[in-house]
Amino acid sequence: MAKAYERIADDIRQSIRTGQRKPGDRLPSEDALADHYRRSVPTIREALRVLASEGLIEKQHGRGTFVRRPRTTVLRDNLRHQWEKDRVREPEEQRATTGATEHDTGLQLDDLVFHAEYREATADEDLAAAFGVAPGTPLVERRYRTRYAAETAPFGLVTSYLVREVVASNPDLLDAANEPWPGGTQSQLHTVGIELNRIEERVTARPPTPEEAEELELPTGTAVFVLRKISYDTEDRVVELSDVILPGDRTELRYTTPLERW
What we know:
Layout (H helix, E strand, L loop, with lengths): L3 H14 L12 H8 L3 H13 L3 E4 L3 E4 L6 E4 L2 H8 L4 H4 L4 H6 L6 E11 L2 H7 L6 E11 L8 E7 H4 L16 H7 L5 E11 L3 H7 L7 E10 L4 E10 L3 E4 L8
Parallel strand pairs: 3-10
Antiparallel strand pairs: 1-2, 4-5, 5-6, 6-9, 7-8, 8-9
């Protein structure tokens, strides 16, 4: 049998899903809800905690509790990599009109706010093993944060690594001022003669760190996807590696596997 707070949470949940309460609407105070449901304030708080953990409501300090506005969803599928490769040899003007984030969200270039930071780094044991280089090898570490202009949280937290020696022949690849690069990473690598042969993605899930939860503005209890993307060139060499943290409340991962016919 459902507990009192679960029944209250379900009632409020249904009012949100049926549109009786709309995004941005303010919920009655805890005291008012306690009177309405004829339950104690602690019971109401537990019901609201459940709804907040589901991302349906949010408490704004000093203002009250509100129905949470749905955030732009991201559909990340494995076909995006071939889509990106197909564009590498297109004219720059054409590549500059859209990118992977637009592909995944359905938004337009003008809808997005893009931020990139580059810094020099060295390979720790984990990255050295992944790239097949010695620990301490110089790397280019790139941090990307892209968000919808109408929202404040990025779609994900992306940290990408390149072996500096592999890309140093094109100084433009060492400067964040050249971001966003038309066509993305595959187009960047093409400028130094690299063609990708395959991309491997490993996905796990875990609770976010406090820093990740704050930056991604995650509801309490929301998990994150942890995606490691490893890009191999046609010589089976790892040429780029990305660690991506994706919020579980707005990300769908979709994998399509074509099967050969008998």
